[in-house]
Amino acid sequence: MADTSATREVFVSGLKNAHAMENQALSIMKPQLSRIENYPEVARRLEEHIHETEGQMSRIEELLQQLEESHSSVKDMALSLTGGMAAMGHTVAGDEILKNSFANYAFEHFEIAAYKSLLTVAQVGGFSFATSALQMNLQQEEDMAKWIDDNLRSVTTRYIDLREAGESAKV
């Protein structure tokens, strides 16, 4: 299928939404990272994923530039604000590390779905120049979701062990 005006609009809108989504991810992960003390493996992986996310945003910006477009500052700001509020919401929970793990797992799958959809639009609309960057972003999100899935048991048991020992188990 050819690059039609409607398909282009869907693709550009999707890229702008993806940029805002990654901005939101940063506003969730950075506060989490700053609070982690007792889960060094989670802190290391969050820090890695923050760097990956920054790279994802750069790739999206490059794609938008190729389309002579730019990201939406309004969408970025709105989603960053909601992400920050979500991150703050878990700080009052006694099991903050678990709540963060659940939320991060769900958010990674939201991002996976968004990139799969963008890849479909790229294919349908003939935006083959975007496939490699979007595939890379998708792979990083899938890797992070798998890491959370693979480590949820150890995070949970560490939380229980800290609670049993009477130590701070929140983060």
UniProtKB/TrEMBL annotation:
Keywords: Coiled coil. InterPro entries: DUF892_YciF-like, Ferritin-like, Ferritin-like_SF, YciF. SUPFAM superfamilies: Ferritin-like (SSF47240). Residues 43-77 form a coiled coil. The keyword Coiled coil applies. PANTHER family: PROTEIN YCIF. This is Ferritin-like metal-binding protein YciE. It comes from Pseudorhizobium tarimense. The lineage of its organism: Bacteria, Pseudomonadati, Pseudomonadota, Alphaproteobacteria, Hyphomicrobiales.
